[in-house]
Amino acid sequence: RTLRFVTTNPGKVREAEQYLSDVYDVTQHDYDYAEIQSDELADIAARGAEDAYEAQDADVPIIVDDAGLFVRALDGFPGPYSSYVEDTLGIERVWDLAEDLEDRRGAFRCTVAYTDGDVTETFSGAVQGTVVAPRGDGGFGYDPIFEHDGETFAEMDTERKNALSHRGRALAKLADWLAEREN
Ligand code: ITT
Ligand code: NA
């Protein structure tokens, strides 16, 4: 069985495969869904999944993943704008902003939306951490500046990051839900 993962980010696909590949063939699917303006990752992901489902000329289940880094003392910035901020400022300059803060705590949040055309369901996960100067060359995105328990996510391998991460938690819920529906 195939699951189409609508994303431009191969790092996300790699992480999803670890949870889903015993049952599903997870394939990266190109579809430029219009991201609705919302502060809620779940709304953005669910609408994106439904749009992508409608747009394909097949009836393959779709997943979409919307994620972001939320820095507490910056009122949750960059949050839903994380992708834009990574592309424009870059993570080095996000660190520059955070460096001056007394409280550098933040969280990664992720929502994975699944739809099979009949049912749409969202699964969320979060992980707390601290924004630090960049370290490590694994992972992707903000991983080098996000430290959890003394290690940045970029210093961890995929398996270890998944065991702790926002996405890993959301994917674990999705995998459980899919397994339950099979029975
Ligand atoms: P798609 O929308 O095509 O899936 P994207 O990378 O733009 O790819 P998001 O909008 O969900 O995905 O990501 C928002 C930003 O957060 C983007 O800059 C990502 O690099 C970053 N991000 C998401 N998950 C992350 C993770 O696990 N570790 C580090 N950065 C992450
Ligand atoms: Na995006």
Automatic annotation (TrEMBL):
InterPro entries: ITPase-like_fam, RdgB/HAM1. Keywords: Hydrolase. Belongs to the HAM1 NTPase family. It comes from the Archaea. GO terms for cellular component: cytoplasm. GO terms for biological process: nucleoside triphosphate catabolic process. Its EC number is 3.6.1.66. Pfam families: Ham1p_like. PANTHER family: INOSINE TRIPHOSPHATE PYROPHOSPHATASE, INOSINE TRIPHOSPHATE PYROPHOSPHATASE/HAM1 PROTEIN. It comes from Halobacterium hubeiense. This is Non-canonical purine NTP pyrophosphatase. GO terms for molecular function: ITP diphosphatase activity.
